[in-house]
């Protein structure tokens, strides 16, 4: 009996020591993780993934850090429907919540040509932005903007990025689509579909629903095309070479996946709901005579949903886009908080 208990105790003691060791190690690691912010970029290259250029990428996680918060995007886009690519630029107003020496954004298949940073004071006095080093980590579809000195908490900064890319071949991001006329001619249009995480294919951004912001969008196009976006158009500027540039009103605060814009040669028919929302149906010229039924149905449906949910549609216009006999509704459920629209 004594021998058996001694054997049992001799077996339990190592187990107890091993378990105790694990608990102590876990407590130490937890203390380290609490005391050392995960967004701090140390010199230990082995602690970080490797960027496309072979340098350490200063962020390990799939989700973005929350130390830099976007407030407003000023986005310019110029698609070329002949060469099937686009050039673009953006200026993102951000708020820094914790000191950091890098900004992490999403970007997929975009060529970053230039990135600069301005403080709020620099912007006020029209000082040029400081050029930033850009690192790319394709496995997480992220880029890192390295700043020369730590950003100061509770201050606003402006990140300006110039970039370009090909129009995507699939049905995600900013992609090219086609339709065939009655005469057999194939025509091209540029369309966006960002839900759930494809806005990063069109512009560098904080492409997670948590990071809501306002968007001011400008689209450059040829005179034979029209441009549509979430908000009504403010004005159109005539440029050299026969190009036009449409400026749209600033959106409500929303996630990146709700941003939408289109460049095409479609025609439209419009009506107004009982609550005063203008609804437009867009279709290719050959299909324009099929839009009236869709318009009448849409007006009735929007009236019905506003009364059923007792929630007014929050934007001044709603647009719908018709490919052949399929109508794509750019309206989300009421649970999306602020649905987008495509409007002139």
From TrEMBL:
SUPFAM superfamilies: Leukotriene A4 hydrolase N-terminal domain (SSF63737), Metalloproteases ('zincins'), catalytic domain (SSF55486)
GO cellular component: cytoplasm; extracellular space; membrane
Cross-referenced InterPro entries: Aminopeptidase_N-like_N (IPR045357), Aminopeptidase_N-like_N_sf (IPR042097), M1_APN-typ (IPR034016), Peptidase_M1 (IPR001930), Peptidase_M1_aminopeptidases (IPR050344)
Residues covered by the Aminopeptidase N-like N-terminal domain: 70-258
GO biological-process terms attached to the record: peptide catabolic process; proteolysis
Molecular-function GO terms, alphabetical: metalloaminopeptidase activity; peptide binding; zinc ion binding
Origin superkingdom: Eukaryota
Name of this chain's protein: Endoplasmic reticulum aminopeptidase 2
Naturally occurring in which organism (per UniProt): Callithrix jacchus (White-tufted-ear marmoset)
């Amino acid at each position: 009996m004594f021998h058996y208990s001694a054997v049992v105790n001799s077996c339990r003691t190592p187990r107890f020591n091993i378990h105790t060791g694990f608990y102590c190690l876990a407590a130490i690691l937890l203390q380290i993780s609490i005391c050392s912010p995960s967004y701090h970029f140390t010199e230990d290259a082995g602690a970080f993934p490797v960027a496309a250029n072979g340098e350490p990428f200063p962020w390990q996680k799939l989700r973005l850090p929350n130390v830099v918060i976007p407030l407003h995007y000023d986005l310019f886009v110029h698609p070329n429907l002949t060469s099937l690519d686009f050039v673009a630029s953006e200026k993102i107003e951000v708020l820094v919540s914790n000191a950091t020496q890098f900004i992490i954004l999403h970007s997929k298949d975009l060529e970053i040509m230039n990135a600069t940073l301005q403080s709020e004071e620099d912007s006020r006095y029209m000082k040029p932005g400081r050029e930033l080093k850009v690192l790319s980590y394709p496995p997480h579809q992220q880029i890192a903007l390295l700043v020369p000195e730590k950003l100061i908490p509770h201050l606003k900064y402006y990140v300006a990025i110039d970039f370009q890319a090909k129009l995507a071949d699939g049905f995600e991001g900013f992609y090219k689509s086609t339709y065939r006329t009655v005469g057999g001619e194939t025509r091209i249009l540029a369309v966006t579909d960002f839900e759930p995480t494809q806005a990063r294919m069109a512009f560098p951004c904080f492409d997670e629903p948590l990071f809501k912001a306002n968007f001011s969008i400008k689209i450059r196009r040829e005179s034979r095309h029209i441009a549509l976006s979430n908000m009504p158009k403010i004005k159109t500027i005539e440029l050299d070479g026969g190009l036009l540039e449409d400026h749209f009103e600033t959106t409500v605060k929303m996630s990146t996946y709700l941003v939408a814009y289109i460049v095409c040669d479609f025609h439209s028919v419009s009506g107004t709901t009982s609550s005063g929302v203008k609804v437009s149906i867009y279709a290719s010229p050959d299909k324009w005579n099929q839009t009236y039924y869709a318009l009448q149905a849409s007006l009735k449906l929007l009236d019905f949903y506003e009364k059923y949910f007792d929630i007014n549609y929050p934007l001044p216009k709603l647009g719908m886009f018709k490919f052949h006999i399929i109508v794509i509704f750019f309206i989300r459920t009421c649970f999306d908080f602020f649905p987008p629209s495509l409007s002139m």
